[in-house]
Amino acid sequence: MKKLFICLFALLCGIPAFAQQGISGIKSGTNENVTIDHPRFLVFAGFAAWVENEGIYQFGAGVKIPLKYGFSLQPEIFYDKRYTEFLTRINTGSLCTVTAPFLEFPLQIQWGKDFGGVRPYLFVSPFMGVGLGSVKGRFKTNLNNSSDISYNATSFRDSGIKPFILGGGAGIGIEVLKQFQLSVQYNSSVSDFINYHVENDVVRQFWTDYKETGNKGRKFFEDFFFQVTILF
Known about the structure:
It is built from 3 helices and 11 strands, in the order H-E-E-E-E-E-E-E-E-H-E-E-H-E. It is an alpha+beta fold. The chain has a single domain, classed as Porin. Strand 1 and strand 2 form a beta hairpin. The radius of gyration is 21 Å and the shape is elongated. The two termini are about 25 Å apart. Residues about 1-35 have low confidence and may be disordered.
């Protein structure tokens, strides 16, 4: 996984030079009115609105690539902790809370207008994520009408959560002096990514209940994130 991270970061480092070449080529052509800024490196950190839940946070790096008409692309790579919790309606007291770390790869698509060094913008951000490290999961359910039974999961495999997610986000932000970005976004996975045949009886019973209740309740791995970005 460390080698994958290094390769992907090297790829991000190559994007500005490639994009700058393309922009220079445009400027050297017949169109002299092109005013596209050069690509910028960026680093950022964010935290979730539900900060009481296990200290959910994210941090990473990326590249901002300005385009025409106020658009820009912002490919990123970051480490993210995600939290979710569910109650089921079949077995009274059935409950799970999960904190799972992911390495994620969003492509933020921005549109905004510069007002003298202050640029408000809107964006969407589709992403994919790969599970990274251990999972902290607590499952409590009721088996065979006995008292509640608990199980603590420590990996994606024994939590029944597949270590791969797809999702998307949308939000608003403001860029100041082309040096800082402040943004807030809502994002969520687009699928539950559950292995309903997980080996542990307690976990399997919980996810079976979850499926039979129609996946009611909070969406899977959703949150509002506040993000602070520095551009170089």
